[in-house]
Amino acid sequence: MTETTAVAVRRPTMLLSGVSKSYAGVAALTDVSLEVLPGEVHALLGENGAGKSTLMGVASGTIEPDGGVLTVDGEQHLSLTPAAATRCGIAIVHQHPAVLPDLTVAENLRLALPADVLTSGGRSEVDGMRAVLDDIDLRVHLEERVDHLSVAQKHLLELAKAFAVRPRMLILDEPTAPLGPDSVDLLFDRVRALAETGTAVIYITHRLAEVRMLAQRVTVLRDGRLRGSTLVDDVTDDELLAMIVGRQLDATFPPKPSPDTFGDTVLDVAALSGDGFSDVSLTGRRGEIIGISGVVGNGQSDLLRALAGLGSFDGDVSVSGKRRSQRQLRKVSGYMPADRHHDGLMMTLSVRENAALNGLERMTWGPFLSRSRELELVGRELTELDVRAPSMEAVVAALSGGNQQKVVLARTLLARPAILLADEPTQGVDVGARAEIYRILREVADEGIPVVVASSDAKELEGLCDRVLVMSRGHVVADLTGDEVTEERMIRAAVASTKHSRQTTAVRRDANRPALRRFLAGDYAPVAILALVMVGLGAYVYSQNSLYLSAFNITSIMMLVAALGFIAVGQNVALLTGGIDLSVGPLAGFLVVVASFFVNDGAAVTTMLLGFGLMIGAAVATGLVNGTLIRLGNFTPVAATLTTYIALQGFSFLLRDAPEGVISADVTGFVMRKVGPVPIAFVALVVVVAAMEWALRRSSWGLRIRAVGSHEDSARKLGVGVGRTVVGGYVITSLFTFLGSLVLLAQLGIGDPAQGVSYTLSSITAVVLGGTSLLGGRGTFVGTLLGAGLIVQLLNATTFLGLSQTWQYLFQGGLIVVAAILYSRVRGSHSPA
């Protein structure tokens, strides 16, 4: 009693009072209150969709509540922003890590952590980063791209960022879901140590055992409402479950059938070896559920991917009595990946579209898709799996984690697989949905389909599986059946093994050349490829025509590159944010037309300066219009910039219906000045590209631009002003187009309304050739410069080789296709399995 009273008088680190939040009229939170005390681990429980993540979004500033008050250390707030929450000492580890996949580990840390955290104690930034990773025992290279990390490593990186700031309040949302036992024990030790220093911890989990191990207080949400809050020692598991699901659960796991009821062998795997596993043999009979256990990263996921036909292998795999190749396995296997967001679902598509993908062959009538058949089959499957969604046309991203997982399962079952492979099938799924998934997997097995389940939760495998293979370092070290299938035996077999995989040698050999692997998967590999192509092409053309390297031709090429290069650099900024700017070509032409009214022979200097000022103003206005339409008008980048494309082209013809207005010879002469054969404009372009490349890699602006393009939602959670960054990016794009128009006006010498349009396609081509992703987040300005150079070089080479204009387009199109295939293959081959 005395201890409870002492706890009660402490001032809360945070007090949420009467918090409410609705989306499109649907209540996500209704009058929820929560008190978080310093030095206490407070567990927050509830089914998926109960409102836990929404409430923590309000607490961490990523969600603005409709009502309620937040009191942080005695100071009241109606809402917080991510930046304000950070200033208040609030850190959050999201269920889906707020990491930026296109940035390196070092860049993620640099963006997320204050500089003084990394350099405290007089250490270097690099040493600070290594210390942050060592604190959570994350062994990865700082220059490794986060996209190449495993799911568990991404979660550890998120945890490392949170612990590094020594927060006053730490929110952990399902932190152990992808982690192995060793990482979980380390995490619990860090959480306890942090709480002992006075940090308040909110711990969201679906695992009651973790609540008992870690928390002092527990609060339950259901249907967006508070259902109870109490000390952990004062409530039983059954009482907690009843509060969570609103009913008593009869049993978490369905009863196991007698082994005598299992049918013939359907799956027969003999001496299977592949990347991450070696010499694995197993059989699967009708009605049987087989578990794959072991510490995370010991080959379980690799084995399932191979059985699904998604990874190469040596050995024999027979399904239904027939030996199957890798390609054939893809047709007969149903595979549920561990990372449903990255590998399992198309998050912007509807529930119907996601569920139907694997079963399209059953929904066609001749060459056509039968909508009625699709609705019938998908609707039936979703109903049988009890998928709770507003409608089949709802975007799958709007569903809870458990319902998303059931959509993945529905899609898998619609393909009528001969075997079902489930990798971490209940990761991030609440208690109620987890029990339903167990029931469904057992029903699938009862229908005669062998089910293979890989899970890091030994208790889950014990309750669900009829047989469990324990893997360590890629080998099967134990085969447990019947009463041998216990959590204790699985863990003992995994940690006691002394097996060494034959893959170890290969892994160590690769580890001796990590820099090469990182380079091939990085942003500068396309730069090297482009440079080699340009040198090779130049050597060939010169061998055919010695005038190719004449001073006149070098000057002509460089001037053309300068005009295109400036515009392409601007286009690259838009693409890095995940957008595109179709208006750059018409804008360049429009600016030249504007200049033709002011920058003329005999015009006063003030008149010329006014003309240049109007050009800059028009460029800035265009960028602001594009950015505002995208961020505030909710236009897609294509629609927004196509609108300005049409408007600018129309304005050009309104101002000049024919080529008129000769540009001042003094201005054109100044722009065309050169040192030897090298134009000053080209030198300026190279200097600007070098500065932009430095800014992209080392400045906060560059990190923000790439963060928004890499993953907008994660960038927002990290406190990046997404709207401001995107609008600013489009203004910069237009300003670079202005620089390109200065070179263009010198080349044209007249205000021609028909000129400039072609630069839209050319600039996009140059950026793509340079290796910038059309999805945003990664690329280089150096690559863009070389891409522009290669385009001009190709056009020039066709003239020297006596080829028709048709070859120019064929070469450009072919280069883009080859570059896209080559870059994706190089990068994809170095991604994690």
Protein model, in words:
It is built from 34 helices and 26 strands. The protein is of the alpha/beta class. Among the domains are: 259-511, P-loop containing nucleotide triphosphate hydrolases (Rossmann fold, 3-Layer(aba) Sandwich), CATH 3.40.50; 518-828, ABC transporter involved in vitamin B12 uptake, BtuC.
Shape: globular
Radius of gyration, CA atoms, in whole angstroms: 31 Å
Largest sheet data: 6 strands, mixed
Q: Structural class of the secondary elements?
A: alpha/beta
Low-confidence stretches: 1-8, 498-513, 828-833
Content of β-strand: 15-25%
Which helices and strands, and how do they pair?
Blueprint lengths: L1 H7 L5 E10 L2 E11 L4 E5 L6 H9 L6 E6 L2 E3 L4 H6 L2 E4 L11 H8 L2 H4 L6 H11 L15 H14 L4 E5 L7 H16 L3 E5 L3 H7 L2 E6 L2 E7 L5 H9 L19 E10 L2 E9 L3 E5 L6 H8 L5 E7 L2 E2 L2 H7 E4 L3 H5 L6 H6 L7 E2 L2 E2 L1 H14 L16 H14 L4 E5 L7 H16 L4 E4 L3 H7 L2 E6 L2 E7 L5 H10 L6 H9 L2 H7 L4 H20 L6 H26 L7 H15 L6 H27 L5 H19 L4 E3 L2 H7 L2 E2 L2 E2 H19 L1 H11 L1 H6 L4 H27 L1 E2 L7 H11 L11 H20 L4 H24 L5
Parallel strand pairs: 3-8, 3-9, 6-7, 7-8, 13-20, 13-21, 16-19, 19-20
Antiparallel strand pairs: 1-2, 1-4, 4-5, 9-10, 11-12, 11-14, 14-15, 17-18, 21-22, 23-26, 24-25
Helix pairs in contact: 15-16, 18-19, 22-33, 23-28, 23-31, 23-32, 23-33, 24-25, 24-26, 24-31, 24-32, 25-26, 25-31, 27-31, 28-29, 29-31, 32-33, 33-34
